[in-house]
Amino acid sequence: MMVSIIIPTYNRADLLPEAIESVLEQTHNDIEIIVIDDGSNDDTREKLKPYQDRIKYMYTENGGPASARNAGMRMAKGEYIAFLDSDDLYYPYKIKIQADFLDNYPDVALVCSEFSAFNDKGYWDEFHLKKYHSSAYMDSKATYEDIYPESISIADAGLNLKRWEHRKIYTGNIFDKYYDEPILSTNTVMFRRSLLESVGLQHEPYWLFEDYEFVLRITRSHMVAFIDVPTYKLRYHAAQISTTKKKLNGSEILFKKYANLLKIAEKHGLNDRDYYSRNKAEVDRKLSGLNKTLAIMLMANGKDIKRAQVYLRRCANYNKPEYLLWYLTFAPHIMRRISLKMKSMLEEI
Q1: 197 with 182: CB under 8 angstroms?
Q2: Are 269 and 276 within 8 A, CB to CB?
Q3: How far from each other are the two terminal CA atoms of the chain, in whole angstroms?
Q4: Per-residue pLDDT tens over the stretch 18-34
Q5: What pTM value is reported for the model?
Q6: Domain 3-236 fold
Q7: For residue range 298-320, what is the model confidence (pLDDT) as tens digits?
Q8: Burial class (CB in 10 A: 0-12, 13-18, 19+), 143
Q9: Are strands 108-119 and 150-153 parallel, antiparallel or unpaired?
Q10: Domain spans in the chain, listed from the N-terminal domain onward
């Protein structure tokens, strides 16, 4: 089956060729590489000239990663679609083992995997997923067996990976778990292009967590597989935060991330009345937690205390009143900061 690999890029001329080379080195030959240039103003086009006969290229006005991926998905001709950020890399076997698995297991709509992490200063972590999503694994001590109902060995699945043949592939319906915590890496996914007819494209206003929400839609009613083998290499570097929002400082970016997570949680948990009625306690816990986090951020920054109170009222609406935090909204800013610091230290003990 043909696989379409979509590479969105914005001012990554120095790293983009390495990403493309990692795709050209794939052991699966039936691929198309789609590079969506999201309004770059560096020498991206010049760096792509050596690859012009081996890639499909589109330049668009800067619209963010979801907009770029959507443009690529509209162009895609492959039966399967995979993503690659322009500062990251694939292992050579990535496309083959995921495409082979989808070929052999037609009931599975999406397959994801472990991934590695590195930087240019020598950092290397071969199995990075549990560390990256520590709240889902290390903090809660969840295992793959807790998340996925079924498993099979690499060898029994018919995948040609001698080094990893005794590791497992996990499968199942995971929407509830994924709604609760980001338990998989969206960078590593490969999915059937036919899903787009029912699931739709990525939601472009979510310039943070747009990929999480997209995959969440797929998991709602489709089987997912997780291959416990790294297929993707995530690069850590200073310019990782999207430069499309470069005017925002770090605290504003963090606030925006949690605000988007709250919107997604409300959309898939609260606004789906049938799902909410069946999972009220779990959804209330998640929504109250996100509202509490947003309130604390506003209180710590000393900004918009009235808005922080709105988030705290919502905690009470979800049966999780935060009395101490509520009283602190009436305290002087320096007292709030000291109290919040002490509260955080006590919670870590």
Answers
A1: no
A2: yes
A3: 52
A4: 999 999 999 999 999 99
A5: 0.92
A6: Spore Coat Polysaccharide Biosynthesis Protein SpsA; Chain A (3.90.550)
A7: 998 887 899 999 999 999 999 99
A8: exposed
A9: unpaired
A10: 3-236, 248-348
